[in-house]
Specification:
- The relative contact order is 0.13.
- The mean pLDDT is 94.
- An eight-stranded mixed sheet has the order 3-2-1-4-5-6-7-8.
- Helix content is 31%, strand content 18%.
- It is α/β, with parallel strands linked by helices.
- The protein starts with 18 loop residues before the first helix and ends in a 9-residue tail after the last strand.
- The protein has two domains: 153 residues, Vaccinia Virus protein VP39 (Rossmann fold), CATH 3.40.50; 81 residues, no CATH class.
- It contains eight helices and eight strands, in the order H-H-E-H-E-H-E-E-H-E-E-E-H-H-H-E.
- Helix 7 crosses helix 8.
- InterPro entries: SAM-dependent_MTases_sf.
- This is Methylase.
């Protein structure tokens, strides 16, 4: 078995903390296609923390896409692995827990979720961590590198394939923000220090704030309606934003990676 690659992180977690990313995964076309077309729908939840609850929730939700999905929770702390193993002894079909890090414990999953993991690493460690996971996933596999607050009300994540980042998604409970740029504090590690003038992510968040202010009238129908109107205004202004095709309780905004990739230097 490969030596676990990485360092022990704080491990804070909680029930339903990752519900927004789970809902997005269930409805994201690229994720659905991968899960539905592979012979072995193996998913890794990397760095699930001190409690295994979000891994169990991920397995439950992904079964909306495919009933035979298998989810492996990987942790670099043996005690957390034991806690996870104890949780499934009572019967959690298709879920297991094992020791592992960015090398994915030699598994070949089609989907990896690494949430609130790289946030605790130095930014210089991100490329190597991404490369290790990209090397480990199955051909055509996908990776989610994300960050959220303690209650999961403000979230951001990057979707990657085996070669490159594909997109950035901002997600929130629209009732839990004052402006879209409130999400800046939860940007993934590779972007959080790039929210400065001249960087594409700063341009996007600033434009979202301006659009949010301009569609304030939609607030009479609730913050979800205001969020949708903001996304539509950004699209009309030429930003390559997309929102889910179906109405969700979450505020969701996704852009291609090239629209927010850090400026070199």
């Amino acid at each position: 078995m490969p030596q676990p690659l990485g360092a022990v992180t704080r491990g804070t977690t909680g029930h339903n903390r990752l519900r927004r990313s789970d809902r997005w995964l269930v409805h994201e076309p690229r994720v659905r296609h991968v899960l539905q077309t592979v012979a072995d729908p193996l998913v890794v939840d990397l760095g699930y923390g001190a409690l295994p609850v979000t891994t169990l929730e991920l397995a439950h939700r992904l079964r909306e896409v495919r009933t035979d999905v298998r989810v492996v929770g990987l942790e670099i702390d043996p005690e957390r692995v034991r806690t996870g193993q104890a949780a499934v002894r009572g019967g959690a079909a298709g879920v297991e827990f094992a020791l592992g890090g960015f090398e994915l414990a030699g598994r070949r999953p089609v989907l990896v979720r690494a949430f609130n993991v790289l946030r605790q690493y130095p930014v210089e460690a991100v490329p190597d961590a991404w490369a290790a996971m990209q090397h480990g996933v199955a051909p055509g596999g996908l990776i989610l590198d994300g960050t959220c607050d303690e209650l999961g009300r403000r979230c951001c994540w990057i979707l990657l394939d085996t070669a490159t980042p594909l997109s950035l998604t901002l997600a929130c409970d629209p009732f839990a923000i004052h402006t879209p740029s409130d999400l800046a504090e939860r940007l993934p590690k590779v972007l959080i220090h790039r929210n400065v003038a001249g960087e594409p992510i700063h341009t996007l968040l600033s434009a979202a704030d301006h659009a949010w202010a301009r569609v304030a009238g939609h607030g009479v129908f609730g913050p979800r309606a205001r969020w949708r109107a903001m996304v539509e205004m950004l699209a009309a202004e030429g930003f390559p934003v997309s929102a889910p095709r179906r109405n969700l309780r979450d505020g969701i905004l996704t852009v291609p990676w090239e629209a927010v990739a850090p400026v070199a230097g």
